[in-house]
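Complex 510.
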Amino acid sequence: MALISKSLIKKYGLDKLKNKLKDKGKELLRHTLDQQVTLAVTGLSRSGKTAFITSLVNQLINEGSGTKLSFFDPVHNGNFIAAKRVPQKHFHVPRFDYDSAMSALTSEPANWPKPTHGISELRLAIRYQPKNSILKYATDMATLTLDITDYPGEWLLDLPMLKQTYQEWSKQTHELMKKAPRAEYSKSFLAKLAKIDPFSTASEELLAQLAQEYSALLHTFRHTLGLSVIQPGRFILPGDLAGAPILEFFPFPALEELDGNDYQNAPDDSFIGMLRSRYLEYKEQVVRKFYQEHFLRFDRQIVLADCLTPLNKGKESFADLELAMSMILQSYSYGKSGLFSRLFSPKIDKLLFAATKADHVTPEQHGPMVALLNQLIHQNKHQLNFEAVKVKTLAIASVKATNSGLSKHKGKDIPVIQGRSLAKASAVNSNSANSNISHSDVDESTEIFGHKITVFPGAVPSQLPKDDYWQSSSFNFIDFAPLSGLNKHQCLPHVRMDQVLQFLIADKMI
Ligand SMILES: Nc1nc2c(ncn2[C@@H]2O[C@H](COP(=O)(O)OP(=O)(O)OP(=O)(O)O)[C@@H](O)[C@H]2O)c(=O)[nH]1
Ligand SMILES: [Mg+2]
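Predicted structure with guanosine-5'-triphosphate bound:
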C-alpha cells in the first residue's frame, strides 16, 4: 500500500496510473481499492448470535430509515452511502437466513428467530465515500465487502482437546461428571460404563447407544442445568455431522487406572481402541479442520456472552460460564506460549466481547454488566497475550425488547423496564416474585394477562459473585418478546449496535 502513494495517484490519475503500473503494482492497487473484512460472530447457544447478525445487517441496509447509529462515524460523518446483501463467498456454507429472522421479528405477534445449529454466512457490500484514505484520490465511491460468519461458540470449547490424548481428555471430562451439578445426572451412564471391560472387543451398536446417551447428557447439562462447558461441542451442535460415527465416542473412566503402555497397546478393535481412534479422528477431521477451513480466515471476531441467564440460574451455572470463557479465550491466546499460536497462525486483529440482552436490565446496570464481563475475560489474562489484537467489551442489545423509564415505588423514583413477557402469566408471576420489585409493586396498570410487565429485575454484580451474592439471590430477569410493530424496512431498536459497528468496521471506511 505504501508503494502507491497519494502523490502518484494525483500526478497520473487513476487510469493512467493503472497502465503505468507493472503487474505487481496493479495487484497492489486492486487490493487497495477492494476493502474486505471477514467478521466472525460466535457465542454459546442462545447467546444471541442470530439476533445480533440480523440487527447488524438490518441497521446497515436500512440506514436512513429511523437509524440510530450516532456513534458509527461513517454515518455520523455522512460518508456512508448504502449497503446491500450480495451473494456470499463460499457456496458450500449454508446461507445466514436473514429473511426468516426478520419475518419472525416483524410478524404479529412478534417472535424471536428460531435457534440455529451450525455455521452460516452472509455477505454485505457497503458503499461509502472515502474521505481520508488514499482512496479519495482514486474514487468517489468505494466498497467494503463484509463477510459475516455465524458459528457456535461450543466449537471453540474443543480447542483444548487438540493437545490432549484420549486418556487425558477422558480423565478431565470424568472429573467434571463426578462433581455437582453434573454428578446426579451422570450416575446411571457412568454405572453402565463401569460394567464394560475396556479391552474386550467393541460392539459398534453398544458404542452408538452409549454415545447417544452421552449426547443426551450433554443436552441436559446445557438446557436443563444451564451449563456452558460442553465437550465435545459438536455433540450438541453437530452441524452436517449428525449421526456420523466420528461423533460416537465418550469419556471412559476405566482408562484412569491404566498405565500409559496398556492404553497404547490396547487392540484397535477393543473398546479403548475404537474410542481412541474416533477421538483422534474427531480432533483431526472436525476440530482442526474447523480452525483451518474457517477460523484462520477470520479478520475480526465478536464473542457474544449471555451473562444474565447464568446469573439467573445460580452459582454452578455461573461458575461453568467462567470455565467456558477461559476455554474459549484459548482460541485468542496469541502469545508465543499460547496453544493456539503454536498450532496455527491466526490473523484476527480486533476482538469484541459483548454482553448481550442488556435490555433485560435497567440502563444503569450496563456499567456493572461490562465490568462483570471484563472480569470474566481478564481473570484469564495471565494466560493471554493480546498484543496483536485490539480488544473491547460492550453491553449491547441487538434487538431491544423493552423500554426503560422511572416508576414510583414507596414514594421513590426507581428505574424500571417494561416489555411483553415471553412466559405465560402464571410463570411471570412466579418469576418476578424474587425480584427486588415485582411488576405488581411498580405499576398498578400493568396488564399481566396481556403479558405486558414492568419490572426492576435486580442489580448486576460488577465483580464475580461471591457466596453471599448467591445466598441473597437478588437477581431475576424475565425473557421478553420482541416489541410489536417492527417493520422490515426500518431499523430495529437496539442498544449500542453503533458502537459495535464503529469498533468492527469503521476503520475500513475512512
Ligand atoms: N431482550 C432481548 N433478548 C434477546 C436479544 N438477543 C437475543 N435475545 C434472546 O435470546 C434468544 C436467543 O437468541 P439467538 O439470537 O437465537 O441466539 P443464538 O446464539 O443464535 O442461539 P442458537 O442459534 O441456539 O445458537 C432469543 O430467542 C431471545 O429470547 C436482545 O437483544 N434482547
Ligand atoms: Mg442462532
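The chain has 19 helices and eleven strands.
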